[in-house]
Amino acid sequence: MNYVVLILGMALVTYLIRAAVFVLGERLAFPPVVRTALGFVPVTVLTAIIVPMTVSPHGNGAEVTWRNPQLVAAAVAVVVCALTRRALVTIAVSLAVFFFWQLVVLR
Hints:
- Keywords: Membrane, Transmembrane, Transmembrane helix.
- InterPro entries: Brnchd-chn_aa_trnsp_AzlD.
- The chain crosses the membrane at residues 6-25, 37-55, 75-101.
- This is Branched-chain amino acid transport.
- Pfam families: AzlD.
- The protein is mainly α.
- The chain has one domain (31-105).
- It has helices at 2-24, 32-38, 41-55, 69-84, 87-105.
- The termini are far apart.
């Protein structure tokens, strides 16, 4: 029962915050420093999702070895993105490296 109340409370807080932004609209002016900080939210959230899945894919602690295909593919993705600056090329190459590492190198 406590989990239900907790989830409903979080949903209510989330809804109220989002509704306030839509209702107040243009009347809600953020200071420049807040607007700058909000620009980093997408990158921060994406990093918070990707890094744990990359470093600890099985949830049993960090697996920072060459036997971790997620980590190898992520490292390749960083290099390819830095060299090409093209998202589709980065995704294609890192997926190819991931599957090659899983199916060929680790077998």
